[in-house]
Design brief:
By secondary structure, the chain is an all-alpha fold. Helix content is about 85%, strand content about 0%. It has two domains: about 210 residues, no CATH class; about 200 residues, no CATH class. The longest helix has about 55 residues.
Length: about 425
């Protein structure tokens, strides 16, 4: 059984996936951006900062549960999409590993809540935030990306996010409702995860079989390099809010989190394109290296152009965007948004070089080394910048690290003569 309809032309499958992912991004970024102006005004910068600090903390657990399957699982499913037996085995292995990791992470969270005063004081918000981890763990996005069939889950995301957005406007009315906001977001994500599994089992006839310990170990080994890379990436992305929160007040964390939320919302179109083409390029490299490089040449121009436009827009209109979306209480966020505005352009370059070129070519170990080295540099710089310059230091460090990542990837691809192959096509 082939999970990719054979009647679809290659580019049509990308267009279909991009359209479906557009709906997903609307649910994941646009909906939060819609409620952001209302939420930040109701609960205030301090509570908003606390919510994001808790979310950044549980993101470490989400990283462990994800285990890099967003890339490694997608790649495995994409390569074996015509083998129903292998698809079922891969799905069973991955979902089993993720649930086992979810249980282990929850035990660790409970231990931390009862042994660390900082976490114990705000135990409710950390427990509620863990609901996000449950939802993300259950959601088989890697499966739908691998078979290039995102339209079903996109509809589910849109419906659930629409309902949760309406409930936020109806139920969040005062500062004390910040815990209810976390609960609503957690319930929405869990619902998406459960429904996503239902669609995988009943729409695509996935049959779950309990894997043997040897299969679980094999699955863990196959995703290890990408998992290491994801840990490193997390150190210079979502960890920034958590580390900032260790040195700054919740209000300052709220300024940075809000500015970054705006940046991510506008950068969503890049994420959609990247996710849409990743399974396609992995399938393409197995068919023809010439076709792969030909497609990558076109993708480079498109990705970089989009990134440049977004970065320029954010830089020029950072003050206006902050005032319109966040209100006067968040005026300090305007400078932070301007500092991080180059990120969409820089990330477009590193995404092409790393995700779309290095991983399909089997350079996972090299990719991991670059990310790990960059993460180490990021932590060293961050530990100096945050205590001295707080949110401004955090913003500048993130941009600096992304530049390092892009330069290192370019240097290694040049050394491997991959760029020569690319432009000989």
């Amino acid at each position: 059984m082939s999970y990719l309809p054979k009647k679809l032309l290659p580019y049509k499958s990308i267009i279909n996936n991009f359209t479906s992912l557009s709906v997903l991004q609307a649910a994941n970024y646009i909906f939060p951006l819609i409620v952001l102006p209302y939420v930040v005004r109701v609960i205030g910068p301090a509570n908003y900062g606390l919510i994001n600090f808790a979310a950044a903390f549980v993101a470490y657990f989400n990283l462990v549960c994800e285990y890099g399957f967003g890339l490694s699982g997608t790649k495995e499913i994409s390569i074996n999409r015509d083998d129903e037996e292998k698809i079922n085995r891969i799905f069973s292995n991955i979902i089993t590993v993720k649930i086992l990791l979810l249980i282990i992470c929850f035990i660790v969270l409970v231990i931390l809540l009862y042994t660390v005063d900082m976490f114990f004081a705000n135990g409710n918000i950390f427990l509620l935030s863990y609901g996000l981890v449950i939802g993300f763990t259950l959601f088989p996005g890697w499966f739908f990306q691998g078979i290039e069939q995102m339209k079903y889950i996109s509809i589910i995301q849109l419906i659930v996010r629409t309902v949760s957005t309406i409930l936020i406007f109806l139920l969040i009315n005062e500062e004390a409702d910040y815990l209810l906001l976390v609960l609503l977001n957690a319930i929405a994500q869990i619902a998406i995860g459960i429904i996503g599994l239902f669609v995988a089992f009943y729409k695509f006839n996935i049959r779950y079989t309990l894997p043997a310990p040897a299969q679980i170990k094999k699955q863990l080994r196959s995703g290890w390099n990408i998992f290491q890379s994801m840990i490193a990436i997390n150190l210079y992305t979502t960890s920034n809010i958590f580390i900032l929160g260790l040195f700054a007040s919740e209000t300052v964390v709220g300024y940075f989190a809000a500015a970054d939320k705006i940046r991510l919302a506008f950068q969503g179109v890049q994420s959609m394109l990247s996710q849409a083409v990743f399974p396609y390029v992995n399938d393409l490299i197995n068919k023809s290296k010439k076709l792969f490089f030909g497609f990558i040449k076109k993708l480079i121009k498109l990705q970089i152009a989009i990134g440049f436009i977004i970065s320029t827009f954010l830089f020029i209109y950072s003050t206006e965007l902050t005032q319109i979306i966040l209100g006067n209480e968040f005026n300090p966020a305007a400078l932070l948004l301007r500092i991080i505005s180059p990120l969409p352009f820089i990330i477009a370059i590193s995404n092409i070089l790393g995700i779309q070129i290095m991983l399909p070519l089997g350079l996972e170990k090299l990719f991991n080394r670059i990310i790990s080295f960059s993460a180490l540099i990021h932590l060293c710089v961050l530990m100096f910048m945050v205590p001295n310059y707080l949110a401004i230091g955090t913003s500048a460090t993130v941009v600096f690290t992304e530049v390092i990542v892009s330069l290192l990837m370019f240097a290694f691809i040049w050394k491997k003569r991959i760029l020569f192959e690319l432009y000989e096509v």
